[in-house]
Amino acid sequence: MTGWVVRPDGGRPDGPGCAHATALSVEPVAQSESCLECAARGRDGGHLLLCLTCGHVGCSDSSPGAHATAHHESSGHPLARSAAPGEAWAWCYVDEVYLDPRGGSPAR
Question: Which of 45, 46, 90, 101 could be stapled to 35 by a disulfide with Cβ–Cβ 3.0 to 4.6 Å?
Fold first, then answer.
């Protein structure tokens, strides 16, 4: 991945920019292939997000645990990308905008 840019409308018509997207230089390696918090509770993590700061993998807000958001809240790490095969988008928790790969076509 060569970086991220805010979607044309940022996911919101009046969405702000995102300085966090340009601060990334290397995408981290995923620490797991599932949401470990959900696995510890015997649940399927559902849709997974990869933290672009440290590689933590957590379930999205559409899952009962919302562990990706909990990771952001406890760590302050601003960006997470979809870990689903064929999807290329990210979310900035701080600026509340969707991001697409720089120079690539988004896959949603």
Answer: 45
pLDDT band for position 90 (50/70/90)?
A: very high
Contact 93, 69 (CB under 8 A): yes
Distance CA 57, CA 48 (A): 6
Q: Which two tokens stand for residue 91?
A: 């979310």
Please state whether the predicted TM-score (pTM) of the whole model is above 0.70: yes
How are strands ordered across the β-sheet holding 48-51? 4-6, 97-101, 90-92, 79-82, 48-51, 57-59
Strands (E), 7-107: 48-51, 57-59, 79-82, 90-92, 97-101
